[in-house]
């Protein structure tokens, strides 16, 4: 029997809950005489009612290393750009990872389509970071200099990232699978002085040689670029770089200054840590800048309390270096936990490659997006039948809304005793607005709670708080990991337009959310891709989970556009299983299913069979760009082909717009 939304699926044992990090934090708060709270919801309420006291307590609890004490927790409690956190402090993000180094202990694991599973101990990772950082300093890298990477999800990228950050340089990743123009759209905004780059990568057994693109990218960045560091990865036998570059292995050939002899560059509270980018489906992507102290405080909170990580844990999330989840995977090491890095196709060379890796590393946390679950279902993978996953205690599902069926798949196919977490936030905040807690039950399709210090609410269009109703996800009070600024946005104009135009003085995130009476949360997709049908707003995920249960439907995409005279047109595009045709009978059956399981308003005006649903490189359906195309936008203004997983998937919609008279 299929589970229904809100059905209880798991409850923590008393031992699991009482031994969790968040329970220990509540004990600490009580022992210090700060506040006496005994459950997560009460703790959350205190954290948003007393923003400054909450974040100040975490500074002490996490034993943040600073050259100087902070003067003020935050300069203003108004929700707006420009707030400054922990003024007067001087910290370094990378130092809080490297302080966990212990000889004889694993620091990370890695696997790729080109390399076997490998364990890197701290006595290799920490010296590598120090040697590279020292070489970079000696070669002229100074605090504030931009250092970019065009590297896969491998240990060398982690080393380069930590080395750059440790000396105060500003870091930015781009995934090697990004197209040339997509990379330049990002890096040209940063104007890097240094670039780390690999020769290519292997994906799904197919080699992708990026040397020609690298040469063009280096030429385009020649105005600022002073040094390239080249890693032969796809072809380790060919050390001839396509540009003037230092070889990776040569950069690590120096002498280790040792932990005592190395100096971390502890930087001011408003010093930039890294530049991250929005998905960039249209126009130049937003170049989002976070501070060392802001990202440190929020990411430490999330990995400690919402993932419950300790130095005993081994954690994995399937990601590329072009997604914020790579940064989050590195952040898991703030707790001393061991991260597992995988580079390659999630189902190659075998469909269950990631589950074998989880078993071989004895992973305690396994993370992926709901689209990965779809892939596992289609391939018939049942991990519990083949692998010992006895150490696995937590699933982290992130990237898009997780349906009750996603939850059900894990409990049926992985294991029954599992803290299954769905969490949602964004690149902009390097954290979660709605998160998990190991002290509460898991309900199907439900995100357990709101993040500590995150004053999240669901609002109607007129700014009224909603309970058990779908509304806009808003955050009413500031938090440390808000972007300190966007690049090339000196007056915060783009920043304000992105988050504060709809509700001045309140962050509108652009997600559709429902919060129930117990504080559980449901994300129903992007509110700007919401189906507004005759004034009734419908989340696209509701239609997807209903339609995609049918064996005939592999995937789907739905949009709704406004027409003159107050009319609406809502088509649904279906990627059908092999050999299936979109007959009138099938269309009627889908419509009946939507009418019965959702409502008559959920039934599209018409159905179309398409070759493939278009996705971004980070696995999000291109709902908004398709909607814009149907409204008459040009492709150049609606979307960037280089941001798409398969650029050819958008061609159907271009032909459709050019020929249809259905609306």
Jot down its keywords.
663 residues, alpha/beta, Rossmann fold, GMP Synthetase, Chain A, domain 3, seven-stranded mixed beta sheet, five-stranded parallel beta sheet, globular
Mean pLDDT: 94
Strand content: 15-25%
Q: Which range best describes the helical content: under 10%, 10-25%, 25-40%, 40-55%, 55-70% or over 70%?
A: 25-40%
Instruction: Compute the separation of the termini in Å.
Output: 40 Å
- Uncertain runs are none
- Structural class call reads alpha/beta
Gyration radius (Cα, Å) is 24 Å
Indicate the CATH topology of the domain at 93-265.
Rossmann fold
For the largest beta-sheet, the strand count, sense and barrel status come to:
7 strands, mixed
Total helical elements: 22
Q: Give the CATH superfamily of the domain at 93-265.
A: ANL, N-terminal domain
CATH 2nd-level architecture of the domain at 93-265: 3-Layer(aba) Sandwich
Side-by-side strand order of the widest sheet: 6-5-18-17-19-20-21
- Net shape: globular
Supply the CATH class of the domain at 93-265.
Answer: Alpha Beta
Number of strands: 37
Helices and strands in order, then pairings?
Elements: E1 8-10, H1 14-18, H2 21-31, H3 40-49, H4 51-61, E2 72-74, E3 85-87, E4 90-91, H5 95-98, E5 106-112, E6 118-121, H6 122-138, E7 146-150, H7 155-166, E8 170-174, H8 180-190, E9 194-198, E10 200-203, E11 206-209, H9 211-220, E12 227-231, E13 246-247, H10 248-251, H11 258-261, E14 267-268, E15 272-277, E16 287-291, H12 292-306, E17 314-317, H13 324-331, E18 338-343, H14 353-361, E19 365-368, H15 370-379, E20 394-397, H16 404-413, E21 419-422, E22 424-426, E23 431-435, E24 442-443, E25 449-450, E26 456-459, E27 470-475, E28 485-486, H17 493-499, E29 507-515, E30 521-526, E31 531-533, E32 536-538, H18 540-547, E33 553-558, E34 561-563, E35 567-569, E36 571-576, H19 584-597, E37 606-609, H20 623-630, H21 635-638, H22 651-659
Parallel strand pairs: 5-18, 7-8, 7-9, 9-12, 12-13, 17-18, 17-19, 19-20, 20-21, 36-37
Antiparallel strand pairs: 1-24, 2-3, 4-14, 5-6, 10-11, 15-16, 16-28, 22-23, 23-25, 26-27, 27-29, 29-30, 31-32, 33-36, 34-35
